[in-house]
Write a sequence for this structure.
């Protein structure tokens, strides 16, 4: 058969390269094994029950055989024995004693009226002739009671040099009831196993389809990152040239003309710097995603670094009537880390505080605790809604608020900040009350 190999090849091709192949095989195989095992147990159970009933019937027949012999010798009626002999799981319907008389079989005594009338075929004696030599038991359907009965024949001791045979019929209502109930329960379990298997398969294939969608989205995200990287690199060179030509243009313009367009130059310079920062952010996103962001370990004086960052923001803060306040930690040691990356993190946090603060002051503090430098940037700005906190450090996420609509940004700054802090071996946290302000804190280990 070539169909099965082709089917297996199709399945392998469908799940080729998928980590779901082996779980699917396991999920399919285990229920199938359980179903096969249940079928086998049902078959064995029926066989064992039949054996037990047959053995029980023969055993009961052997038990009452001495009483039958005694009653025959005494000339007693077997009906008395019939009423006396009842088994807990079986009920004797009739007792018959037959013997061989030459080439004939005759009834010596019986409690079965139909047999008294000479209907020996009802006993199946033509099939049970071997019963004169060994016990025989078998099932047959009794039309009178409308149920299966057990026919059992057991050889008896010889009397008057003739072979005698004890023939009993048993009802097995209780045993059949137990057998039926157990079989029903087994079939219910089997049906539940089949249903559970179908549910598992359906759920797994749904999960597989979702996994496929996830992989497609991951591939699209990868393509997006590659496009961002390519676009950022292509834009970086023209941007550098544009900044150079802007400075060159300033030198060529006469002082009188320069005063007239000073404000225009200022705006143009600000726009170019914003665009340059965007390109640098995109490049950082690409480098972080591809694991190419370099960390250069040097000696770092944290307080000096913070002072340098604050000096660059004083003009921008003054335009919004904001005060920058540095609380330098005392006796901070030199640490082993990347000063440029720490400066980038602090710059991002201070820049955000200035953008989202309308008045008051911005506090930058540094302390040392447990082999870590703690740096905090606290402002009295508009704060962050609680609903935005879980996604605050996500890529391209921006706080959606009526007060932030006019603030420009890409939603990359905090994502880059978090990644850099983690690459330096630290952690970053945020506390914020909407309408009151925010405090960003991050740690840097003393040694990388």
């Amino acid at each position: 058969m070539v169909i099965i190999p082709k089917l297996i090849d199709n399945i392998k091709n469908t799940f080729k390269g998928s980590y779901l192949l082996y779980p699917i095989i396991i999920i399919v195989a285990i229920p199938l094994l359980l179903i096969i095992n249940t079928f086998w147990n049902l078959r064995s159970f029926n066989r064992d029950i039949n054996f037990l009933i047959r053995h029980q019937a023969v055993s009961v027949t052997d038990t009452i055989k001495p009483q039958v012999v005694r009653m025959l010798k005494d000339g007693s009626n077997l009906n008395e024995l019939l009423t006396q002999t009842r088994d807990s799981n079986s009920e004797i319907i009739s007792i018959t004693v037959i013997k061989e008389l030459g080439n004939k079989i005759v009834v010596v005594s019986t409690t079965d009226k139909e047999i008294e009338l000479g209907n020996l075929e009802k006993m199946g004696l033509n099939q049970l002739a071997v019963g004169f030599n060994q016990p025989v038991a078998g099932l047959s359907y009794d039309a009178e009671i409308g149920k299966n009965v057990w026919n059992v024949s057991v050889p008896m001791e010889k009397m008057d040099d003739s072979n005698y045979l004890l023939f009993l019929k048993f009802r097995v209502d209780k045993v059949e009831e137990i057998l039926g109930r157990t079989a029903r329960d087994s079939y219910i379990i089997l049906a539940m196993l089949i249903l559970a298997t179908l549910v598992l398969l359906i759920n797994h294939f749904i999960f597989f389809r979702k996994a496929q969608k996830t992989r497609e989205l991951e591939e699209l995200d990868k393509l997006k990152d590659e496009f961002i990287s390519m676009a950022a690199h292509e834009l970086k060179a023209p941007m550098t040239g544009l900044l150079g030509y802007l400075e060159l243009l300033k030198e060529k313009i006469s002082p009188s003309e320069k005063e007239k367009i000073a404000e225009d130059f200022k705006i143009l310079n600000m726009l170019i710097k914003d665009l340059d920062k965007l390109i640098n952010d995109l490049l950082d996103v690409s480098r972080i995603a591809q694991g190419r962001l370099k960390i250069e370990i040097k000696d770092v004086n944290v307080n000096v670094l913070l002072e340098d960052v604050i000096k660059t923001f004083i003009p921008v803060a003054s335009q919004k009537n904001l005060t920058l306040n540095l609380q330098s930690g005392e006796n901070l040691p030199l640490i082993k880390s990347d000063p440029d990356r720490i400066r980038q993190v602090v710059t991002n946090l201070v820049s955000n505080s200035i953008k989202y603060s309308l008045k008051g002051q911005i506090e930058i503090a540094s302390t040392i605790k447990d082999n870590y430098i703690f740096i905090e940037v606290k402002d009295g700005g508009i704060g962050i809604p609680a609903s935005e906190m879980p996604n605050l450090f996500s890529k391209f996420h921006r706080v959606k608020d009526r007060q932030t609509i006019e603030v420009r940004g890409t939603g990359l700054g905090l994502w880059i900040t978090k990644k850099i802090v983690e690459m330096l071996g630290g952690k970053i946290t945020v506390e914020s009350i909407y309408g009151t302000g925010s405090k960003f804190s991050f740690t840097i280990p003393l040694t990388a």
Notes: The radius of gyration is 48 Å. The chain is about 55% helix and 20% strand. The mean pLDDT is 76.
